[in-house]
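Q: Structure for this?
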Amino acid sequence: TPQQDSPRGIWPVFRIMDENGYFRDATTTDLSKEQQDDAILTKTTDDATDLDTLRRHLMQHAQPHLQEYLQSSTLLQQAPHEYPDVQSKSTLLRVFIQMSRLREMDEKFQNAQRQGRISFYMTCTGEEAIHLGAASALSREDTVLAQYREAGILMWRGFTLEQFANQCFSNDADLGKGRQMPVHYGSRALNYHTISSPLGTQLPQAVGVAYHSKLSSHPTVTACFFGDGCASTTDFHSALNFAATLQVPVLFICRNNGYAISTPVSEQYAGDGIVSRAPGYGMAGIRVDGNDVFAMHAAVAACKKYALEHSAPVLMECMTFRQGHHSTSDDSTRYRPPSSNSPGDPLERLQAFLRNYNVVDDSWMATVRDDEKMKVLRAMEQAEHRASPPLEEMFQDVYHEIPPHLQRQEEELHQHIAKYPDQYKQKNKTH
Amino acid sequence: MSLAWTRRAVLSAAKRRTKTLPHTTFSASFTTSRHHDAMMMSTTVTTNMNLFTAINNAMTTAMDTDDSAIVFGEDVAFGGVFRCSNGLKDKFGPSRVFNTPLSENGIAGFAIGYASMGGTAIGEIQFADYIFPAMDQIVNEMAKFRYRSGNQWNAGGVTLRAPCGAVGHGGHYHSQSPEAYLAHTPGLVVVMPRGPKAAKGLLLSSIRSKDPVIFLEPKALYRAAVEEVPTGDYEIPLFQAEILKPGNDVTVLGWGGQLQVLQSACQLAHDQYGIDCELIDLQTILPWDVETVQQSVEKTGKLVVSHEAPITCGFGAEVVATIQERCFLSLEAPIQRVCGYDTPFPLVFEKYYVPDELKNLEAIRHVVEYGG
């Protein structure tokens, strides 16, 4: 397997696509000019999405240890049906389009917060390959428990821009009924647990989810996402110990993006990252280049297979970089140089790959970017004009059935509002 | 059928320092409450059970009737440190009854995850004194799971059981009653039974409830309380207090093991001063049955609330605040709280610390004699 010392430790990093968008073994000497030219696929058909041709070409030129991966990767296969949001069967191109969509959504929603149109936002900029590489390797039946910087997973499963916007604008179409801050998404239909702010609480819960799956007749894998800072919490420790001891099929997927708000990883742990803890708990671990969507996809697919076959947990540490601020309440220029960019932005690397292998051209990619920008703006506009959820939603769902004391409190509130109607107007623009 | 507690047994249990508490017949002397009437038909088969046997029986029944029900926690596999899970692993197998590593936050989080997928998770916290590492999961996750998801997800399948309360020799960390911390959490249900029969019915309701329940079991009663308990499947409704003995002079309110003490106090008040107490068991601490207590105080005009937990910000404070607001004009005396002192639960001073029957008797006299 390809090895390259991690900049943050000695545990090797699994990588497939190099930073310039080529498939090659990074430990060998660089390809000669002839080899590079040879690596460029000459378009033989008009269909820029012909993944079969691409895959055969990659297999011709890739190192032996990648052959099996390339043959079986769903990323390089046409899907059985068209993806509705892109009207294409090309999984790879859907990944690219959604990366672009997510990038645009982050930029526009963050701007909306700066303009005071939403109260809060968190971007995922720089971590899109983790989301989409992982989500495309999982199936929708695999329950996902995330932290807060994993919107791309929800997007892959079919959460629309309107749904993202509705939650951020806290309107009456928000599935969460406006009760939580922006980016606290959740979807039962898409098997994505609703996000909560406390860090790490989702890890032991993921073990419980995985245990339930283990006892069922059709086990699925449970995928639990979290960051490098979260890996310091007590819940992380308890969860990994439980998962290994109880032998449940769960993937603990850590996005090591270098920072927990202002705290760099050098102040977060002294060991070799997060993955080095795996053998301590008695579980398998892998460190992956999180900005290489092919490596992410391959690793998650392999780990899922392993977890289900052995009914065992796996700890995956995905190396990436948090390009944006922690949130709109953070100004990262206060603790690191402005516009810090790690080499290997996942979107740029994928663009380079698509360009290098002549899958699509720059103008196509630019069109995608523009299209997605317009879709984001339209979604925001419709969300902004919707009304707030009805006031009764403050008192519902605290319990399965509203208890008498909450009914009393709701009545008191209504009586109070009736005395001061002008001071308590809700955002309620009706069409 | 109804209940009474032997005064001698209560006092001797408190005095003992040994681990073995005397077996006490939890026999009847008060009239039946309205809840028990319906189910205590002459054809009901009952048998003598102590508290841990009743809990065990409830869990067996729950697991018999729900294939997804699992029991887990520290040391539950061999039967549990209080024998509540005796025999469950043999009956239902190791995948449904199993030990977890030593981590309360892990137990609580695991329970939530399992329940979120539709399973019934019966977790055990070995002592309520050790529930605090789990508070983040309980308060921030379990209690808010349904609300924050817009009712897409819920943790209603969770029941966390924990032994609580004074036991004669428990000291700081084997005697606590943490209901007040838990009751301050919207979305949680907190239940504490007073004895074996109530425990079985309340535990079955709790396990089957669509809300997450913290079920606190007075450990001093595990072996000491014995009564006739129906062998069949029955539930006692949550969110309802129970009037154990109707009366006209003063309302006396408590929960859990304290009902034994209060019953003795009421008996003393009757025998020595002719005071006719109305004794109420709150049963569900959150959400609590304001209606029943309010109606009682409107009738009697006087209230004594008693709990082992420290008095400041104990759950008695919530009862007092609500009742004084709702029954102000009916009250003939200030409401009395007879509680533990504001100290950590002391070992050698336990006899002085606990709100015993004599302190409660004094409080009852005080309100009855108030104002001359």
